[in-house]
Amino acid sequence: MSKVCELTGKRPMFGHNVSHSNRKSNRKFLPNLKKKKFFIPELDEWVELKVCTAALRTINKKGIYAYLKELDKKGDIKLN
Predict the structure, then answer these.
(1) How far apart are CA 77 and CA 6, in angstroms?
(2) Distance, CA of 44 to CA of 26 (rounded, Å)
(3) The CATH number fitting domain 13-74, selected from 2.30.170.40, 3.30.750.200, 3.30.70.20, 3.40.50.1460
(4) Taking Cα atoms as reference points, which of 78, 68, 28, 36 lies closest to residue 53?
(5) Cβ atoms 64, 37 nearer than 8 A
(6) DSSP, res 51
(7) How far apart are CA 80 and CA 72, in angstroms?
(8) Whole-model pTM?
């Protein structure tokens, strides 16, 4: 299971844990992904996506179809 948002493309980032003595050890910052089913009334179908919570907030604000059309216009995804 890949840890990549299907809409925004967010993926794991790498950095350091820094101790009190300033020693650095590698760590991974994972995106906050949720599996969610969306109903798109314009297409009359259900779609299951793995999206980050930032994308969920944008979908709640604009609506799923408007957000998908915006991503299609940018060229990030291909809408039918």
Answers:
(1) 9
(2) 46
(3) 2.30.170.40
(4) 36
(5) no
(6) E
(7) 9
(8) 0.81
* Bridge partner residues of 48 (DSSP): 37
Per-residue pLDDT tens over the stretch 4-40 = 999 999 999 999 999 999 999 999 999 999 999 999 9
Give phi and psi for 41, each to the nearest 5: -65, -30
Token pair for 71:
């991503």
CA-CA distance, 60 to 45, in Å (whole number)?
Answer: 18
Query: For residue 49, what is the enclosing H or E element?
Result: strand 45-52
Nearest to 17, CA basis, from 2, 27, 9? 27
Q: How many residues does the chain have?
A: 80
pLDDT score at 80: 64
Q: Which residue type sits at 46?
A: W
DSSP code, position 80: -
